[in-house]
Structures
1.
Amino acid sequence: RTASTRSYTTGPLLPPAYERLYNKYSEVRRVLGKQRLTLAEKILYSHLNNVEESLLSNTNNGRSIRGVANLKLLPDRVNMQDASAQMALLQFMSCGLPRTAIPASIHCDHLIIGERGADADLEKGIQTNREVFDFLESAARKYGIDFWPPGAGIIHQTVLENYALPGLMMLGTDSHSPNAGGMSTITIGVGGADAVEALVGAPWELKAPKILGVKLTGRLGDWVTPKDLILHLAGRLTVRGGTGYIIEYFGPGVDTFSLTGMATVCNMGAEVGATTSIFPYTDASARYLKATRREQAAINASALQQFPGAGASDDAFFRFRADDGAEYDELIEIDLSKLEPHLNGPFTPDLATPLSQFKKTVQEQGWPEKLSAGLIGSCTNSSYEDMTRVESLIREADKAGLKPKSTFYITPGSEQIRATLERDGTLDTFTNAGGIVLANQCGPCIGSFVRSDGVKKGTPNAILTSYNRNFRGRNDGNPETMNFLASPELVTAMSYAGTTTFNPLTDTLTTPSGEEFRFPAPRGREGPETPFDEGRKSLAVLSQEPDASVQVAISPTSERLALLEPFDPFPESDLSGLRVLVKVTGKCTTDTISAAGPWLKYKGHLPNISANTLNTAVNAETGEVNVAYDALDNEAQVTIPELAERWKKRGQPWLVVAEHNYGEGSAREHAALQPRYLGARLIVCKSFARIHETNLKKQGVVPLTFADPADYDRIGAGDEVATIGLYDMLRAGGKGDVRLRVTKKGTGEQFEVPVKHTVSEDQAKFILAGSALNLLARGG
Ligand code: F3S
């Protein structure tokens, strides 16, 4: 990141990354002319592999690219968390390359529980997961990847503090990676297979997103925070409203936000399904770069915005904001001055209730009035600003002799935040008030919350968190725990009251001496007065050169890690002799195909995790859950994964037949890897969830949809299936019709079923090679 030695006759020097960005941007401008661009478009299109081809071939002179073109992008870096990094690295290893093509980092944050407090939990977590951490650390050394061990921090906070720079494009193997959009980056959450494409230097494909503009005016009120903006938006957009969109914020209200406030809003764009979210670069962004000891980055960002210097036309400048007059596919205007604090939940982040209505809603809905626990921090809300605002509330309550009535937990987002809050006395304020400071890890946010308040599984209860997600069982594994999302300030005030019906704006608490106490409005500081304390940054291993002599640590007897074997290539003919493993009815999400919870520990061991394949799927012919019948063994009754395992051993390839939106939910690549590992060649259904459909192709499974959905009724478990035209279609780069010839089990009756596909030219190559990885491994 040192300044380039290349000199220009006009304008300042640019560092190499910005020189690349600028050169690409100039190409974008050459192709698109004076078209007004949003910030997201400027950054995204300036990372295209081939600007001219991408912007012109798919569009009407570059004007209707959104939602139409397939962009081939070259990201600047990849960030991986420990749970998803395992499969990403196992796949990368099988490509046989000596180093990653672009910088990457691993963050050990998901595998530590939240129970007794930072030190005890960290020690226990390291012991329980030692072999996974050893594997990740050795792979980092071998391939020259930055390694942030347990305790160093949560991926999104660490990325924001260390790697996020305006104008970059990053991929992260976690859905909340868009957090870095607060620093004007395009950061997209992906699965391991996508990460590997970027790690080997292959272009990464994305359907050009549409842009949802959110224009902010006014200024947030005393108790209202950036978190309330996104909670409010989630209520308006719902969990699917952002699908296919980048959410771009603009307008004068943006300048009233801190950098970390912008990051919080971007983080939770994942809750409305957005591809990512982004804010312009502001004075607050520059202040944050300086506070995190990256003053040179602020100088570089300013240099880029002034380049190429006086005399150039206005379009020649790359500015970290939308052009005046840029068009949005959808536009929402929000006056921040009119926004209220919100509480969202239970069980879904888009069930938004303004604070003023919450007491009434709790009572009408019969939700618990007792608040059992309040949890603040996490990757979403553990900034210096968040924590010092909370501290101001706690200090006032303390002066009045009050203590929280609910158990109160604090999760710092990173070692840097933790050390700075410790240095500045904030952590002492929390612990003196009875708060429990947990490790700088995901812990309670990802189901590793071990309750110490005696609430047993199955008991309905309410908790309040400043996290981002609140699906059933998300925090403590108890499906009856109602998790409401709110700002850290609201969580804290309500924890003192111990009730879900308390409104700190209007209600009072009674002090031990019998007086009425009303919380004053929270007051905090955007950042520390001196730069952040880096704490035990030496824990992290950064900027290491690859070391080919390192043996990646995987024990042959490990139950948690297993090297991957390449999948077989597609045969040089159509498929024949397939059998329908199971015909599924109803929802079949990625959770149905590859369950989480206790199975998470097998994420790096494909054979072991495959024992959960489709284990909550409903058999359409019997109505039973996870029950299948072996057509090749007198209809013996077994579980679905058992039948898949039996057929794998026999060398019997198979397919699944399903209904609509197969694979909805997350980008979980295991939901594609596992069926492939067990012998699936086709999934045939009424419709697919888009990301899962792509994931299947990447693993060499062909997703097909019924041309006539009524044909679903004609195929059953155990029927034999052959393809007609599939091989020719793949060889023709995705062009041509495909049919299935079905031979009914028992009667031998035969008929043909026309099917549809969305296989592109590149995807046809993946499938023929056996998987995208096979193709990448041979340099395809
Ligand atoms: Fe971790 Fe929760 Fe964020 S799981 S990465 S703290 S969303």
2.
Amino acid sequence: MALLRAQGGMPESAVEEILRWASPAIHTVRLAKADNLRSARLNTNLRHRLRNLGPHLSFAIKTPTPDRDKVTRQIGNCGRAVPTLSEHHHPHNKRWTRRPEGSNWGDFGPDDELGRMGTITPEMRLAAIAEVKEGKAFALSLPLDLPGGEPPDAGRFGPKLWPTKLFGHEVYNFALTAKDICCDDGVTMCLQYSTQWDSLAHWGRMFDVDGSGVEVPVYYNGFRPGIDVLAPAEGGPAANKLGIEKMATTCVQGRGVLVDLAREFGAGRTLVGMDKLERVLKKQNVQVKKGDFLLIHTGYGDYLMGANKKPDPHVMETTGAALDGSDDALLNWIEHSGVVALVADNQAVEAFDASMGNLGHNGLLPLHDRCLFKLGIHLGELFWLGDLARYLGQVNRSAFLFTGPPLRLPGAVGSPATAVALV
Ligand code: UVW
């Protein structure tokens, strides 16, 4: 049984909010002294509704006050401790009151959908422009028909072009008039087949968002499958929240820095945790700043570029460095570095077990979990970084202006990108 404290001065909107998410399925409540309710500036209707909810409800409400939001709790007849209010507790959010440990949900606004990408300031963009010294530009996309092939179990296929039709004719080398020839086409492809951004709707997890002890499926900032992100049977597919078009509106431009793991570790598969990453950052004099796009050259893309659209699955599994998502020190560093995105030339930024057998407490892809789900850090995959990495190595530099918006495609959870580095 929990204590319901309605403190004097609690705004009615806050109580309304609590009533909205209060589930009658949750146990019992004992209202704090009636005085407390009376002292709260609630209208009669709200007071009445609170009293009626009394027998069914279990949680604590309290005006959030720094340093005082620590206590209010206690055990129910079910014998389970209700989580105490803490920095992870936001009693007034519509979708959640508990945020995951190590997350930044709510820090950029209660309904934020941009994550760290929304923290890039005009000053940061000007600082990025100041990194442009030579005006030399690098294309950072693979040809979008790479990797090549369609592994039967991968579920993703490359672009298939088709001509549009006009008056029943295919508009391809089409004599539109006696003088004019025209081509016009469409494409069908998986948005995450080749060079791609993952939106924040790409990766979620089960999490207990209200301390009720029940885990529910949820994405960054508590957006929900079935409500905000709709499967086909729910009226989708459509990421009505967190879709890739939200990222596109930020323009995805800022200071890029590249760390060249391939230069350090060679072409084979090397698992890179914090120790190794720190050593390479230092050796290559890569200064990572708040608001940066961190590009990671692993060598995987170089293999794909040379594999003539017929990459060998075994070689793919054993080629290129990959970040070790099971290394908490690495995940913590990513969190505290302030980077807005991680962009790699490999398939998932982090190493993963394709058999899906190796499931740790942070799921199959712990770096996806920390970045996409907890921190709103976008992930770029299968970017083409070979040319840029080699050039930067030659001139002993690591920073540049990065520009790489995704398609402004409403409701999509991923997108191809044709990014550019200006050095
Ligand atoms: C998966 O689909 C496993 O994720 P990603 O494409 O982001 O690597």
3.
Amino acid sequence: LQAEYAKLVGKPAETVDGQRISLFMNAGLRSDLPHLEATGADGIGLFRTEFQFLVSATLPRRERQTRLYEAVLAAAGERPVTFRTVDIGGDKAVPYVSEQRREENPAMGYRALRLALGREGLMKVQARALLDAAAGKTLNVMFPMVSEPWEFEAARQIVEDQRRHLIDRGADVPAQVNYGAMLEVPALAEVLDTLLPMVDFLSIGTNDLVQFLFASDRSHPKLAERYDWLSLSVLRFLKRVVDAADEANVPVTVCGEMGGRPAAAMALLALGYRRLSITPAGIGPVKAMIRTLDLADLTEAMQGWMAAGRNIRAALEGWVEMHGTV
Ligand code: PEP
Ligand code: MG
């Protein structure tokens, strides 16, 4: 099977009916970078910058952050990279940054952008490192756990202030900066009309999103498998978001784990998603699925199943059996 996937590396992720799908990979460490070439990914759709913080005993200095981001951009070459600002706190506690206070519900606690907006120094240093690393290039930066549009705006302003500051000093800055919000807190979906005009792109973190939709801990051994990301609640939610983003002409990517599983990726494509960022190990299997998929057929079938409230996982499995898709 691995040999089969290796044959697909240089081939596009295109469906039988000619829909080109962007398949990006998720990464977070220098050691992930060789996967770009090995998998033939279209770029890095999610670079989890907190990993450098998690493996470090002390706060990584700005120069070290810059060097890592430079290495990522160099490895990607012409391929786009989307950096996510630190998602620290919750399950990713960093002793030298996180509040020492014990939290009852760390996943819903003082984490990610919430923490970063409260620790402006941290955010400024990271913004500066990203801007320096991407001088002369395109910088795509997104913020995790945006819960209300003002948080996105506040974060964007911090990066913009640093960019202005560099320009005033005559320093090199990125040729372009694109700002995105991660949608992983359900409440944000109710204010897309406000958010979408503010952002350059949207990225859906289905790991957290599904955990919050079902109020079910994503890492709890008894619960992790219990609520299906192919449930109607999740899929109807995701459908509304992709429709709103398409309507507003805002590119939207799914960067949670579900996109890396062929059956779930099929469902996402049938809902209208055309950009997935997934674990490197998923690129081969998902690309193989895409290259045998008649997406127009599946999209029509999916609409029927959703309207009828069918069990989507079972319906997809039946469809695969009939059509012989991976
Ligand atoms: C997510 O929540 O789906 C996501 C991509 O981010 P993380 O898994 O790092 O929380
Ligand atoms: Mg998340």
